[in-house]
Design a protein that fits this description.
The protein is α+β, with helices and mostly antiparallel strands. It has two domains: 5-97, Ribosomal Protein L25, Chain P; 103-190, Ribosomal protein L25, C-terminal domain (RNA Polymerase Alpha Subunit, Chain A, domain 2). It is built from four helices and 14 strands. The protein is elongated.
Length: 207
């Protein structure tokens, strides 16, 4: 697990839409933190701090949450909501976790070695983009790397083939395809059509 980045914020009041818009104009992002048997706590996160961290590190993995007047918490990002037009983040859901209790989270897959596939004149077709894992928070990986550099045409990698720590349990169907190498001609024919904008949702469930 990489060093947890720190999100900073304040507790906020439960008020109307005008108050939430006022927060956003002040570079604060309305959010909520829940879990560990506590009542959902409305908060507002510092927008510049959050955007810098999300842009640089993404929003999978653990974060340290510092709230004014509260003890620090370790949290996971459960959902990020964006404005439907300008895509600016306008709400974040956070889940507080205990470092001594196992958690279940989705971890993104990072493909490496694709250039070696291209050198063969082949095409790499990717499947699932993330894997559900269960482990203690300290063992939660930021990404799971999938090395395809040694694959030949017809070879594939499934969830079962992905390497993780012995303390990390992978979920989902182990036969789910992560990557497969195809001949250039077949790869072009099998390439799926791009998803239309109309079918894309506004909320982004996090890891």
């Amino acid at each position: 697990m990489a060093i947890a980045q720190t999100l900073k914020g304040i507790k906020r009041e439960l008020r109307g839409k005008g108050y939430l818009n006022e927060l956003r104009r002040g570079q604060m992002i309305p959010s909520v933190v829940y879990g560990q048997g506590r009542e959902p706590l409305p908060i507002a996160l510092e927008g510049r701090n959050l955007n810098r961290i999300f842009n640089q590190f993404g929003y999978s993995g653990l974060f340290n949450l510092e709230l004014e007047g509260e003890a620090p918490l370790m949290v996971l990002v459960r959902e990020v909501q964006r404005h439907p037009i300008n895509r600016v983040i306008n709400h974040v859901d956070l889940l507080a976790v205990s470092m001594t209790e196992k958690i279940t989270s989705n971890v993104p897959i990072q493909i490496i070695g694709e250039e070696e596939v291209v050198k063969q004149g082949a095409v790499l077709q990717t499947g699932v983009k993330e894997v559900e894992v269960t482990c203690l928070p300290a063992d939660l990986p930021d990404v799971i790397r999938c090395d395809v550099s040694g694959l030949k045409i017809g070879d594939k990698i499934t969830i079962a083939d992905l390497e993780v720590l012995p303390t990390v349990e992978k979920g989902g169907d182990p036969e789910t395809v992560v990557a497969v190498v195809l001949s250039a001609q077949r790869g072009s024919a099998d390439e799926p059509a791009e998803e239309s904008e109309e079918s894309q949702g506004e909320a982004e469930p996090a890891q």
